[in-house]
Amino acid sequence: MLNEEDNGKINQKALLITSRAFLVPGVLFFNNKTEMETSVSALPAFAGVRKASENIRNTVNHTPLIKNKNLSETWQAGIWLKREDLPVVRSYKIRGAYNKICMLSGPELKNGVVCASAGNHAQGVAFSCHKLGIKGSIFMPSTTPRQKIRQVETFGREYVDIILTGDSYVDCSNAAIAFCETKNSTFIHPFDDPMVIRRTGYGCAGNS
């Protein structure tokens, strides 16, 4: 957390840079004032972010803000990096995946969860499945490097099945969605879901 003195040193230029590059996983850019006002009205209520923080508190390590000397000197501003490479899966993606899965109801979990990803989201879902004791099917493009596949296997263990299919994420995602429809499973989208990113999941990074 920044103290009052540190916070005062971060000027608007620095805040813009850190927001775009480091502190906010998904950044909104607006074409006009109306678009901005409409989008801002849909931003997460802090109560939702706080709830997500509680959900992941015992799962995701607190990640610090660390001032980067080289970037600060380059931009002549105070540049602080949010170290989201420190959680167990080395990515903020665990926040959204775990928050989403732990908030699913019994019927939604009955036939397991499914995701499509070539890396970090897959690892987050796999880790969540193992920790929560939930069956998961992880769809990954057939071109995924073996190292990433091994990471998913390590985090999910006996709770996940890995399906390699398609030459691209789009092909892989389509296959995963079709699988969900056939098995009546729950799809865990990597970003287009309120509980994953827009309202609470990834948003809790700022609360830590």
Overview of the structural elements:
By secondary structure, this protein is of the alpha/beta class. It has one domain: Rossmann fold, CATH 3.40.50. 49% of the residues lie in helices and 11% in strands. The protein contains 11 helices and 6 strands. The strands form 2 sheets. The chain has a 4-stranded parallel sheet with strand order 5-4-3-6, with helices on both faces. A two-stranded antiparallel ribbon has the order 1-2. Helix 8 links the parallel strand 3 and strand 4. Helix 8 runs parallel beside helix 9. The radius of gyration is 18 Å and the shape is globular. The N terminus is likely disordered.
Please summarize what this structure is.
The protein has 208 residues and is of the alpha/beta class. Helix content is 49%, strand content 11%.
Mean pLDDT: 77
- Beta content: 5-15%
Poorly predicted spans = 1-30, 35-42, 198-205
Instruction: Give the number of domains.
Output: 1
> What would you report as the Rg, rounded to the nearest angstrom?
18 Å
Order of helices and strands: HHHHEHEHHEHEHEHEH
How is the main sheet built?
Answer: 4 strands, parallel
What is the helical fraction, as a range of percent? 40-55%
- Subunit organisation of the chains: single chain
According to CATH, what is the topology?
A: Rossmann fold
Q: Per the principal axes of the C-alpha atoms, what is the gross shape?
A: globular
Give the class from helix and strand content and strand pairing.
alpha/beta
Number of helical runs? 11
Question: Could you give the distance between the termini?
Answer: 8 Å
